Amino acid sequence: MTSPIDAVTVDDATNRAARETARRRVSWPVNLAPASVTYESAGHALLLGDELGVRRAAAALADSGLAAIALLITEPTAAGADDDDVEALLASTRHLPCRTLTAAQRDSLRIEGYLGRFDVGLEGDDGPLNLALALLGRRHVDLVLDLGRTPTLALELPPPGYRHLHGESPERDVALAEFAELVGEFDKPRYFQINADLCAHSASGNLGCTRCLEVCPADAISSHQGRIESRIEIDPYRCQGVGSCSSACPTGAIQFRLPEPARQQEALIQRLDAYREAGGRLPVLRFVEAGDLEAEGDAPAGHLLDVPLEELGNAGHDQWLTALAAGAAEVRVQLHPDLPPTLADFIDDQLAQAHGLLAALGHSPGRIQTIQRGDATARDALPASLPLDETLLTLPQGSKRERLEAVLARLAELGEPDGARHALPAGAPYGGLEVDPKACTLCFACVSNCPTPALAAGDDTPMLSYREADCVQCGLCVAACPEDAIRLHPGFLADAARNERRVCHEEAPFCCIRCGKPFASAGTIASIKAKLADHPYFAGDAAARLEMCEDCRVKDVWQTMARDPDSQLKV
User: Fold this and answer.
1) CB-based burial of residue 414 (10 Å sphere; 0-12 exposed, 13-18 middle, 19+ buried)?
2) For the whole model, what pTM was predicted?
3) Angle between helices 341-360 and 317-325 (to 10 degrees)
4) Which residues, including other chains, have CB under 8 Å from residue 379's CB and lie 6 or more apart?
5) 569: which DSSP letter?
6) Which residues pair with 432 in a beta bridge?
7) Neighbour count for residue 134 (Cβ, 10 Å)
8) Which three-class secondary structure state does DSSP give residue 119?
């Protein structure tokens, strides 16, 4: 619900004092000793592009301390170069190993890796050719300087050690000097941790959630196909800590570590509480990259409390909604023009999800908005409405989804949910499912493949139950169902019923015809009998084994063999 604040008198000095008190009382969490990965570079560099450009760069790097330089000519030289300059360049760089690629070879050029370990090769009819080995006598190159008109690695965030530099760039000399400094050992935080038990990516050979794969601008996440299952792998050497994978992960299987999402949530809740206790009013939380804060020349208005992030992707709609549920009047996400396109799209998607959830719960979507770097007017504007609540928000010490559900529950209490199902952006981790009771045999393949507690089997009776609040719409249950009996219904249900467990299908148990023990559902036995009706192992009197429990079935087999030892040879 929205409450106007036109008549509220705001004392900025009091707010500034309260903000400083909150800052001193609640330090923003950081990982003081994160696990790290180490790059080792000896300075073996590969320069690629047109011949004139790479030879000019090689001449400029001649005395820079690089261990070795090799040249790879991938483009024709543009016309207009002075002949004397060309001759001088050839004379000074003739000793460097060099190879010129044909047009076909340029199309098959492959560069993979990171600082200290780049694989550079050509794919040919006779097999792959290792260009690092051919030019430098090493299996890998340490550095790659790409001077081509378009980058060979067309990534939004290229790996460390790879630099694309246009030959006419005004920052050429500075860029070359920085490139030459990439020699030695360099440590970088291992930004993430993965809990495979929570991952909804794959089960029983079926693929489910792929949200992390879709939002990484560094192309550091891959789906690795094992002998049976697929699993998510993150290359720690290519990961650059954007954090969008952690924010997009609906189950918390991927967790960012600088800081962990749960610590970040608790810190913003505590900071808002400390601000209120110190007399502050109308708090607005700004999610902003720490680098932008350092570059800001003026102090923001007193009601603006900052959430400093390594990257904007470190926080998603769950964190923004937490701020509103904890008493922020508004949330502002500060963008800047240097965002990689994939990250910008991710923030737009998270914003659309947040707006959809707020509308469904009866709140103004305008409580979460974006502002641009340098727009002091939008940054310091007073919020349009009063905070939804000013009591301390307490979250459970559970999973990411459990904490988010507690936030949504608080927002539902403070709003007016309409009980309808609201459409959200495609791929949002909210929705229900329907089970066709005529097709379902209660085999529980869906339960064994569900990565969350959404689907469950009955304890004493054949029963399938479902709780929508736990469902992340990964689709693994649909893929696993042998009877095609399950359908997903995307969208957020703004009703308390999404938190209740409901029975989707239930049957009377089927009891063993020998001992009377219940061991399956009637539907399962009927389906198995239909599918195995023509199997010789269950022909004739042996068909009764399908109606026996596992113990009685084994006994019947042995008794048959005792009476007729050759019976098994007849199958």
Assistant:
1) middle
2) 0.85
3) 40
4) 286, 300, 301, 304, 332, 334, 371
5) G
6) 489
7) 14
8) strand
Neighbours of 570 (CB within 10 A): 8
For residue range 241-289, what is the model confidence (pLDDT) as tens digits? 999 999 999 999 998 887 788 999 999 999 999 999 999 999 999 999 9
DSSP state of 310: S
What is the Cα gyration radius of the chain?
Answer: 31
Which one-letter amino acid corresponds to residue 33?
A
CA 352-455-477 angle, 5° bins: 75
The two three-digit tokens of residue 314, written as one number: 């470190």
pLDDT in tens, 352-409: 999 999 999 999 999 999 999 999 999 999 999 999 999 999 999 989 999 999 999 9
Dmax (CA) for the chain in angstroms is: 102
The two beta strands, 206-207 and 202-203, are: antiparallel
At position 217, the amino acid (one-letter code) is: P
- What are the C-alpha distances in Å from 202 to residues 198, 199, 231, 487? 11, 8, 7, 18
The pLDDT of residue 184:
95
Instruction: Dump strand ranges (E) for 375-447.
Output: 421-422, 431-435
Among residues 237, 239, 44, which one has the least CA distance to residue 139?
44
DSSP-assigned letters across all residues of 133-183: HHHHSSS-BSEEEE-SSS-SS--SSPPTTEEE--TT-TTHHHHHHHHHT--
Q: At CA 557, angle to CA 551 and CA 563, rounded to 5?
A: 135
3-state secondary structure of 418: coil
Question: At what angle are helices 400-414 and 341-360 packed, to 10 degrees?
Answer: 50
Q: Is 265 exposed, middle or buried (0-12, 13-18, 19+ CB in 10 A)?
A: buried
Residues in a beta bridge with 207: 202
User: Nearest 5 degrees, angle CA 387-CA 392-CA 395?
Assistant: 110
Residues 6+ apart with CB under 8 A from 36: 187, 188, 189, 190
**Tokens 């990965």 belong to which residue?**
37
